[in-house]
Amino acid sequence: MSTRQHVVEFSKYEAAGNDFIAINRLATVGPPLTPAQLLRMCNRKTGIGADGVIELHGSPAPGCLYSLNYYNSDGNEGSLCGNGSRCSLAFAERSGLVALTSPEQEVTFEACDGVHLGGMLAPGSYYVTIRDVEESGVRVLGGDGDNFFVHNGSPHHVRFVDDVNDVDVVSVGRRLRWELYGQEGANIDFVTCQTSDPCDLDLRTYERGVEDETLACGTGATASSMAAYLRHRSQHDTQERAHENSTVTTCTRVHARGGDLIVSFIYDDGVFRDIRLCGPVNHVFDGRIVV
């Protein structure tokens, strides 16, 4: 692989403070970026600065507008990124790949875990779908009922605490990430329920691959919402649980440090379906960098 320097055109986006470098590989000719180059680009002191890099490629999947590749700021390929996926929609629109004119118009794209849908709810507000998650795939950790493991395209350890503002997210998050999950790692989400209603959450996340706290985490918001639902299910659907095949629709507002995200899903007979992650997306600037 050639390591000769070349110019890369990019756009910078942020979604509730979760920020990304976006590159349109459908229009850009050049060699793949190496992990070292991606690491330098994401460096906040000597590069552009970002939590990660999203690249749009052509997709072989029928009906998909593009394939989304995501790289963490450590330069390594990452798992599903919810906020990065939402930014990819705004980037695709601004790049002329699609014109989103109404909430009814959806884009189909491919990510590392399969095909997703997304669209624009209003100017500056975008949503993506998350693939179904079976309740059997959500594990309760320990006996206190305050720790869960959820895999929704990315691995998350969700810990409920009295007040997220009292947690040393970087120190505790890093320890749990390495002690419990080793080299592969997991994202560590600290969650506080605002009231007895688990549809209003405060969230802070230590992200693997970034190895730091980020201002928001999209898959963390969805994982935390599902864990909160299961943790407080008796308060959600006491009457419905009398029926063998209960169906419950839930919408959760998640307050991250960089802004609010909205997570909705349908819980249907042990499966979380129609999971949607919604929230703001902002184009910050465009540029070129020599790598």
Q: What does the model show?
A:
Keywords: Amino-acid biosynthesis, Isomerase, Lysine biosynthesis. This is diaminopimelate epimerase. Pathway: Amino-acid biosynthesis; L-lysine biosynthesis via DAP pathway; DL-2,6-diaminopimelate from LL-2,6-diaminopimelate: step 1/1. Its EC number is 5.1.1.7. One of its GO terms (biological process) is lysine biosynthetic process via diaminopimelate. The protein has 291 residues and is of the alpha+beta class. It has 2 domains: 7-123 and 282-290, Diaminopimelate Epimerase, Chain A, domain 1 (Roll); 133-280, Diaminopimelate Epimerase, Chain A, domain 1 (Roll), CATH 3.10.310.10. It is built from 5 helices and 18 strands. The strands form 2 sheets. Strands 5, 6, 7, 8, 9, 10, 11, 12, 13, 14, 15, 16 and 17 form a 13-stranded mixed sheet that branches. Helix 3 (169-181) links the parallel strand 11 (155-160) and strand 12. 42% of the residues are buried.
